[in-house]
Write a structure and sequence with these properties.
- This protein has one domain: Immunoglobulin-like (Sandwich), CATH 2.60.40.10.
- It is an alpha+beta fold.
- 25% of the residues lie in helices and 47% in strands.
């Protein structure tokens, strides 16, 4: 009888641990950010949209070598905010007719207090005598703190 009780307790412990891990995995998926960016050339604004399910705090934005103050903006799910940035100056310094990519690094904190780096880029593509601007998000990585 004691062996059966020990086996049952071991099995219960293993099941509970697996369930806890599953719950933690699901929670991290809910809180992981999904961020989209768009650049409005006419307004000189970078739009940052929270497409995820968690509220995000916008901690910092860097475009190329420019650091843009954000004042810890809150982005609820399905909302966006804009930051002012003069990308045309950067793009105009490049050769006429060439493609140029400017890196964008956005740091956010999820409502579970985890921080993430969102790596994106704004790309200028020559189309005939004018330029077309495209944005892309390349990676979202969790920030590990020591």
């Amino acid at each position: 009888m004691p062996t059966e009780t020990a086996s049952t307790l071991s099995a219960l412990k293993s099941t509970t641990e697996n369930m806890n891990k599953g719950v933690q995995d699901q929670r991290s998926q809910v809180h992981a950010p999904a961020v989209a960016i768009d650049y409005n050339v006419a307004m000189g604004q970078l739009s940052i949209k929270n497409q995820g399910k968690a509220t995000l705090t916008l901690l910092s934005v860097s475009v190329g070598d420019q650091h843009i103050p954000t004042s810890s903006l809150l982005l609820a799910p399905d909302t966006s905010d804009v930051v002012e940035v003069d990308l045309l100056k950067i793009f105009n310094q490049s050769l006429q007719g060439s493609s140029v990519s400017v890196p964008v690094l956005i740091r956010v904190r999820s409502d579970d207090n985890r921080e993430y780096n969102v790596q994106s880029a704004v790309v200028k593509l020559p189309v005939g005598s004018r330029a077309v601007f495209r944005t892309q998000t390349t990676a979202v990585t969790a920030v590990t703190k020591p």
